[in-house]
Amino acid sequence: MSSPSLGMCFDRSYPAGAISEFAQRLEAGGVDQLWVIEDCFYTAGISLAATALARTERLHVGLGILPAVARNPAVTAMELATLANLAPGRLIGGIGHGVQSWMEQMGARTPSPLTTLEEVITVVRQLLRGERVSCEGREVHLTAVQLDQPPTTVPPVLAGVRGPKSLAVAGRVADGVVLAEAAGPDYVRAAVRQAAAPGAFRVSVFSSLCIEADRRDAYRWMAPVLAGWLSSPNPAIDAHPHADELRERLAGGETALTEMPREWWLQLGAIGTFDDALEHLAMLADAGAHDISLFPAPELEVARAQIGDVVRLVAALR
Q1: Domains of the chain, with CATH numbers?
Q2: pLDDT-derived band of residue 248, with 50, 70 and 90 as boundaries?
Q3: Model pTM?
Q4: Nearest to 224 by CA among 253, 266, 187, 260
């Protein structure tokens, strides 16, 4: 498989004003993509994406991920169409369920997240194609809605989902899927099988980034993150070839995680030395990933330094 498009994620906790710096430095370094993260109740994806697109000329910007019920789907389509017309060919849309506890906080929780996601992605893609849409669904209700300015270049709309049923929805109605951190090559392959898309299907993967001269230092940085992944339901972890052993090690404390074999860490992220990160990226590409966007540390100053790591990885892949 050809080299995937490589990018970086803009963590939800970073100050909004840092988006221009990240976007401009990534573009100057030849990086393909920047993905903005919209989580409640942090910074908002649409405004971050608009700023990143306005500050750059070639960088592709992904929305990861707009909750399906946070906006009316007609408004979501308007927003995506506007961004796509401001920067033709450079927007990647992303829509997901949203964390259900957050949706409940907003009074927007749906009784059927799967049905809602399917209806929302379906009508958003129809509207982006310039169609006149009426829908009397279980959750979505539109009457003769048509965008006045549909995008000249229709952006892909990917589903940010994890479980088998949600992946099946993505395969039916989305242009592709966004897989969150901890998605190793085995999970990428499983997700593609579960989506069972009838045609072209874009696979974008978020993967954690932690490069150190001594890989053990990277493991120590990432052990608390891995402990969090292991402590909650996570299909990506379940697909890891050593999932049971990972959980057994966690019972012995985070130190036991740092002592895992290198091969186990390679399945989890771009974690270790620079060469380890390159090997992880190659594994994801071989599994079917078209885009890989690297998740930096939550500390802003550390993330600023990690932009250089992403630039070096892009150069090495080319």
Answers
A1: 5-211+271-317 (3.20.20.30)
A2: very high
A3: 0.95
A4: 253
